[in-house]
Amino acid sequence: MAGFGLYWVYFRNSAKPQQPPGKGYQFTMQPTLVAPKASDSNFISKMKASGRNIVVFYGSQTGTAEEFAGRLAKEAARYGMKALIADPEECQMEDITKLSEIENSLAVFCVATYGEGEPTDNAQQFYDWLQTGDTELNG
Questions:
Q1: Residue, of 46 and 20, whose pLDDT is higher
Q2: Which of 11, 35, 47, 114 is the most interior residue, by most CB within 10 Å?
Q3: Shortest CA distance to 83 belongs to which of 66, 108, 116, 65?
Q4: Under DSSP, is residue 4 helix (H, G, I), strand (E, B) or coil?
């Protein structure tokens, strides 16, 4: 009985419905900044929109290189840098020439091999693109 009495005393005020604000109450709306939506394959736009200056590409068959790329990105945060982890298969690698548009930018590649040194499935297109040599990679 004493428990019921304590329960009633303690919770009796919390069960009352709250009244809506009366006249004279003003609602305010604050504008919010929405980051521009980058296309799925444009990692440069993603980096600019999220304020990142490092991109870590991974080529992984079993997930080890991807995990290592994640560790590198976390380690970069310890030094005040923001990293984007990217799968080269899902990116337009031609955009890597635009990396200089981002101040203090850096590209890191964590790429595994399998078999007798062949590129992983998700890095095959990147490997083929590098082999063509059509793009000037300076900087």
A1: 46
A2: 47
A3: 108
A4: helix
Q: Is 34 left (phi over 0), alpha (psi -120 to 50) or beta?
A: beta
User: Residue holding tokens 């200089």?
Assistant: 100
If you compute the radius of gyration of the chain from its CA atoms, what whole number of angstroms results? Answer: 26
As a whole number of angstroms, the distance between CA 59 and CA 66 comes to 7
Q: Can you tell me the distance from the alpha carbon of 110 to that of 66, in angstroms, rounded to the nearest whole number?
A: 7
On whether the CB atoms of residues 87 and 125 are closer than 8 A, the answer is no
Higher pLDDT among residues 137 and 30, named by residue: 137
Say if CB 64 and CB 35 are below 8 A apart: no
Say if residue 41's pLDDT is above 80.
no
What is the enclosing helix (H) or strand (E) of 9?
Answer: helix 2-11
Nearest by Cα to 52 from 110, 102, 109, 108: 102
- Whose structure tokens read 């919390």? 14
Which tens digits make up the pLDDT trace of 49-93?
Answer: 999 999 999 999 999 999 999 999 999 999 999 999 999 999 988
Please state whether 104 falls in left (phi above 0), alpha (psi between -120 and 50) or beta. Answer: left
